[in-house]
Amino acid sequence: MANSTLKSAALLDQMKLHLSSDAGKDLVKKIGLVYQLNIAPKKIGFEEEIYVVDLKKGEVTKGPYEGKPDATFSFKDEDFIKIASGKMNPQMAFMRGAMKIKGSISAAQKFTPDIFPKPSKL
Amino acid sequence: MIMIKLVTGGAACAVPGSSSSSNPLGALANSLLGSSSKTQERLNELPGTAVTGPSTSLYSGGDNQLSTLPGFENEEQELRHPDAQASEFLRGFRGADHGGFADAWNEIQRPQVPPHGPALRGGPLPYTEFDKVYENGFQSLPQPILDGPPGMVLSNFLHSFMRSSSTGVPFGPAMLPALGLSERDKLCIRDRSSIMARHFFADKSEEFINAQVNTLLHSLDIDSDFRAKGPIPGRYPELEEYWNESQGAIQPVVHNPANGWINEFSQQKSLHNDPEAWVNMFEQQHGAKGWASEFQQEQSQMTSMNQINSANMAAMEQTRMLAHTLSQNNNPKFQNSKFLQFVSKMSRGELIVDDNQIKPAGVSSSVGWAEEYQQQHKGAPTSWVNEFAQNELSHGTNGWAKEFSAERELHGSVDDQWVQEFSKLNVNDWAEEFGHQVGEGVSGESSEWLDGYNEYLNEQQAVKQRSNSSRGVYVFSDMNPYVGRPDPLKEGQELFRKGLLSEAVLALEAEVIKNPENAEGWRLLGITHAENDDDQQAIASMMRAHEVDPTNLEVLLALGVSHTNELEQAEALKYLYGWLQHHPKYGTLAPPEQSASLFFADVAGLFNEAARLSPDDADVHIVLGVLYNLSREFDSAIKSFQSALKLKPRDYSLWNKLGATQANSVQSADALLAYQQALDLKPNYVRAWANMGISFANQGLYEDSIRYYVRALAMNPKADNAWQYLRISLSCASRNDMLEACDSRNLDVLQREFPL
């Protein structure tokens, strides 16, 4: 993922490491769902990079999920960062059209900022 | 009725033809049953005395019980025999020791605490505290000379406060001439001094800091909290107290008592920017109809009490005397007799007599309560209503309506925007989702959606404010006291060296306002912002520094670091490459034509070469560490920072960089050690405090993370990231009760709740 220029890629790299920690394992226990993220650099639906955050197995992978994810989200790189860092509420993002959801709403409701690790600042 | 027989008989027999107070029973009978014509009249005047409903039937049961009690019959008979027996009876009373009855008596005499007691007593306290400080002011030891024009006095005074920090001697209060500070000035001084104090005394306890700040504020006649801020006790102290109390949780800072209500409202407004929110807030606190119904209840209780009261006053007085007489006797028969219980109940107002019937009063202490209430209010309960109405009228309704319409006009555009946004939504998707939701029976979420909408409105407001401060444009603080100083740069450097970051920001801003071309001013300002955990402002000031002096290596490195923190790879890479390009030693390594298209691997290769050229240059290792952070090769980054630390072990920002890298590669335990090193070297390094919070949060230790975030925010309330993280941690730690304090950025509440 290092070759991606998306900010989200950096965060998801960290997420990958985070899921191997104790806190990450708790997350898997607590949520146990599979999310697919379609992240576009500028405009939803264009040049999307697809990541799968698998909170069943505790993995983050690049490329579409084989099978049916519990929920699929589409957003812009920047909006995803805002959501993951708590700057923007996911519900609000959805209402503004900054985030699109496919799949189960109840699964989508568990997609909250606290499942993402916070990057520490140099 | 037995009762009538008993009492009339008693009155007639025991002391025939007399109803003087020397015979308690007779007097009781008079006042109860109205053999005194005056009382009778009064009773008749009050048709509404009856306590309605169940209490009547309740008592009728009690009545039967009384009559069937064996001891009671005896008493009745005894009383029927007038002379000898009755007087012996009374003598028996008097010869007693008081033990058994003392309790009952005490209970009667114990002053009742009025329901408003705590509120009333809360009022004067701050003033006594103030008086204390006032007195101390005269005794306090040598103070700087505080004379001259107000401006000078103030700045001298504030400087003496700062000096007190270096000596570590508690700051003594001082008497100052009237300075004519405006509310706004006061507020500004209050906020800044409490932030500064946290920087000064980063190693001291919270109480110490608070004491210092309070001393300062008292001396300046600024109230340190909203309670002390209360007005000179006005005409409606209770009302105001109640209002403040109910509003306190929302927004405890009232600047100006007279306008308190309106201020509250407008603050509320600007915070929530939505009429709904206010209503919600109010309802949350009081329940939908809570306040109104509470008022009604009180009101109806008042009216009934009021009527009963005067009628029973005399009776109670009499029974008190009777109970007193009875209490002189300790004949066990009497101690346990129903009669004594009856009388003492009567005297306490638990039983009342109405239309020849005896009824328990609704609440045991309600008569007393009503009595107290009346005394306090010198009469009519309606006065309360009047007061309220007056209050409401004087600065209520009109202001509120105006406020509201002004608000509407101001934010009308928001609504339009919202409509636009909404129409952008894919309606089909939405309908589909909705169907799903209904199908799955997910209810209760609707309120969340509503919240979402409200939040959206808030965000719109925030976005509007921030649009002025869009990326790369530096936002200056208003009310900067350093503007106009002869040498703000020097002051800024001094403050930065002392670690007073928020204060240094102000001094340096004053410098760059004065000399916009001063690269050093901008650079130091940027560094200060970075240490204060505000990367946006750091980038903005560093860009200005970069414009003025495009070859400054420190500026280039700082820009690289800040962009790395913001996950902006391309920019970060550009500046870090620039660093190499402009370095006198390694500049030759970097061909200028390459800067057009940078690839991470190439840049990293160049830096590795530089590191080989001079392995003792800590800076090269630092840049390499930042680069590896950019590519998320955290192990290499950690190694680079560690090599740099061998060369520069006292560089606190380097320890923080190491810690952050370790934290990002899930080595939180090591990270905490590194942050601790940084904080040992620089106790008010806000970034390191915030990073510690992040590390705890990422380990799932939310309670701990909250404490560190709050600590960081106390030193720099403008650190937006920390506020957002704090919010997440609060909801993860199930501390939803504190979310409101977080949203309104109420640090006082948060610090009290989460001390470090």
Automatic annotation (TrEMBL), chain A:
Protein's organism: Stephania cephalantha
Pfam families, sorted: SCP2
SCP2 domain boundaries: 15-112
Protein name, per record: SCP2 domain-containing protein
PANTHER family: SCP2 STEROL-BINDING DOMAIN-CONTAINING PROTEIN 1, STEROL CARRIER PROTEIN 2 SCP-2 FAMILY PROTEIN
GO cellular component: cytosol
Domain of life: Eukaryota
Gene3D superfamilies tied to this protein: SCP2 sterol-binding domain (3.30.1050.10)
TrEMBL record, chain B:
Stretches forming TPR repeats: 519-552, 618-651, 652-685, 686-719
Pfam families: TPR_16
One Gene Ontology term of the molecular function aspect: peroxisome matrix targeting signal-1 binding
GO BP, sorted A to Z: protein import into peroxisome matrix, docking
Sorted UniProt keywords: Cytoplasm, Peroxisome, Repeat, TPR repeat
InterPro entries: PEX5/PEX5L (IPR024111), TPR-like_helical_dom_sf (IPR011990), TPR_rpt (IPR019734)
SUPFAM superfamilies: TPR-like (SSF48452)
Compartment(s) where it occurs, according to its Swiss-Prot or TrEMBL record: Cytoplasm; Peroxisome
GO CC, any one term: peroxisomal membrane
Broad class of where this protein is predominantly found: cytoplasm
Family: Belongs to the peroxisomal targeting signal receptor family.
Name listed for the protein in its UniProt record: Peroxin-5
Lineage start: Eukaryota, Viridiplantae, Streptophyta, Embryophyta, Tracheophyta
